[in-house]
Structures are given as C-alpha cells and as structure tokens.
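Help needed: design a sequence for this.
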C-alpha cells in the first residue's frame, strides 16, 4: 500500500523509527506490528510501514528504516590534511562535518516528512550515541 500523507483518511500521528542496521529495522517492524508491516523501497534502503498504537494515540502510522552506520564524518579542513608540519598543531586545527552519503541524509529527510515523533533504535555504546546525535 502507498504511504499515507498527514491528511489521509486515518488522520493519525506519524512516527519514524530509525535503526543502525536494516536487519534491525525489519526486526523492530515485525515485532511492533505483530508481523503485519508492509515493506517498500526507500531512497536508501527498505522502509517498513504499519499502523499501531503509540503513546496516548489509539492509532499511529509507523515507518522504520535504517542509516547503515554513521550519517556524517568529521575531517580536518583542507589546509590541515597535508601531514606537513607539526602534528601537535592538529589538536587546535579546524574540522568540518559533512555527510558520508547525501543519499542517506536525503532518505532521512524524506522519511521524516509529516512525522511528529522520532524513535531511535541504536546500539547503547559511544558509536550508537554519536549516530543518535547525527540523526
């Protein structure tokens, strides 16, 4: 079934679930939907959709997808990447944060449209916490 817009007949709240891995997104969707989730192709991987209660709402539209690791990468600016000079200067060097893949960022933006809640399903470690902030 096609994804319902916020003005669809259900008129319900929309919730986006984001996992670190596609297999986890599929497992979460299967568990929370009691096996009734449908799957469609998203811009950057599968998106699982189902209807179920959420918090105080009797019915909400849910969609689950994944980021496949980090969304952004941190690197030194071009003038600090030459490895020429004093390595100690890198402690004070400027850095830049940029998307690892513009497709992942666009995918998350597209899937988040119309959603009023975000549920993050990421590993409980430093890397997972960092990905949480990136999402």
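Sure. Designed sequence:
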């Amino acid at each position: 079934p096609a994804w319902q817009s916020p003005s669809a007949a259900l008129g319900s709240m929309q919730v986006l679930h984001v996992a670190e891995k596609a297999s986890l997104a599929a497992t979460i969707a299967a568990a929370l939907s009691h096996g009734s989730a449908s799957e469609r192709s998203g811009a950057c991987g599968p998106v699982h959709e189902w209807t179920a209660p959420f918090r105080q709402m009797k019915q909400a539209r849910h969609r689950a997808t994944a980021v496949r690791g980090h969304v952004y990468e941190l690197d030194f600016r071009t003038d600090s990447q030459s490895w020429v000079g004093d390595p100690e200067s890198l402690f004070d060097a400027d850095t830049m944060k940029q998307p690892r893949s513009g497709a992942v960022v666009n995918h998350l933006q597209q899937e988040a449209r119309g959603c009023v809640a975000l549920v993050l399903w990421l590993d409980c470690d430093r890397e997972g916490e960092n990905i949480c902030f990136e999402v």
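The beta strands are 13-19, 38-42, 45-54, 57-66, 72-76, 95-99, 117-121.
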